[in-house]
Design a protein that fits this description.
mainly beta
């Protein structure tokens, strides 16, 4: 199937629209900072997360414990399709893979671990518990903006951001994210989708290089979660580490309003623009 060369359908109130052929039309709210025709990786990762949930939950595997995205090439703003393949489904855990395609090109390969949940009372006095909270709650954090906000409709319009600590694109920081619009038209995004659409921003918010002079694109993203997130707000406590070989690592501690929920990592390719 050839890649569409038409302009994306304009749906300013959502990131994606489900089409009659079971593909997803990408809207301008998915646009990233690196190229006007390419998506920020957060929305397509969340779209694949949605597909993993749909396949795993009927088996009673309701907790998405890990999602890994291998980003093979930029995701164009255009029609996308997602195909999930079960690898192994057991009593307590299931392993799944997925392919994200834009036309006839595979743009991402994903894996996920889904787990069965059950109530379990933890003993009192465990070392390191209770788990830490974000540095400030979202209601007392100041509004924050991406430096590319306002240039074109895109990811910065999809997400509301507030700074709990530090500043966006100025080194280590803690930033709250909340979806302003649905991921898929007519749907309420799940807690896991809220994490996925935000977690890919760790390398951006904690950037230490000028993004107009350098690119520091991630070719992967791994999200590990210890429990389902609660509420609309997700906080990334992020930092970037760079090496002199043109490579880097961004890592984020993930929080909701009730405390630590997991971690995310990204491998970076650092280049002069």
């Amino acid at each position: 199937m050839p890649t569409s060369t038409t302009h994306p359908i304009q749906h300013p109130n959502c990131a994606y629209t489900l089409r009659a052929d079971n593909r997803y039309e990408s809207g301008d709210l998915t646009r990233g900072p690196w190229h006007p025709e390419h998506q920020h990786a957060g929305p397509p990762v969340a779209l694949v997360c949605r597909a993993f949930e749909a396949v795993s939950q009927p088996h009673g595997l309701t907790h998405l414990a890990r999602l890994t995205a291998n980003l093979l090439r930029p995701v164009p703003i255009g029609p996308l399709s997602v195909e999930v393949t079960p690898i192994y489904i057991g009593r307590n855990a299931g392993h799944f893979s997925a392919s994200l395609r834009a036309g006839d090109k595979e743009v991402g390969v994903f894996t996920a671990l889904a787990q069965r949940e059950h109530d379990m009372a933890l003993p009192e006095g465990l070392a390191g518990h209770p788990l830490p909270l974000a540095q400030q709650p979202p209601e007392s954090s100041k509004p924050a903006n991406f430096p590319f906000a306002g240039r074109k409709v895109g990811y910065s319009d999809l997400m509301e951001t507030r700074a709990a600590h530090g500043s966006i694109f100025d080194g280590p920081c803690s930033i709250w994210f909340r979806l302003r619009h649905p991921l898929v038209q007519g749907e309420h995004p799940s807690p896991y989708q809220r994490v996925a659409v935000a977690a890919d921003s760790g390398n951006g918010i904690s950037a230490v290089l000028d993004y107009e002079r350098y690119s520091f694109v991630n070719s992967d993203l791994t999200i590990n979660l210890l429990r389902p997130p609660r509420g609309e707000w997700i906080c990334l406590e992020a930092r970037t580490a760079l090496a002199s070989n043109g490579c880097g690592l961004a890592e984020s501690a993930l929080y909701d309003a009730d405390g630590l929920i997991g971690r995310a990592t990204q491998s970076l390719a650092v280049r002069h623009r």
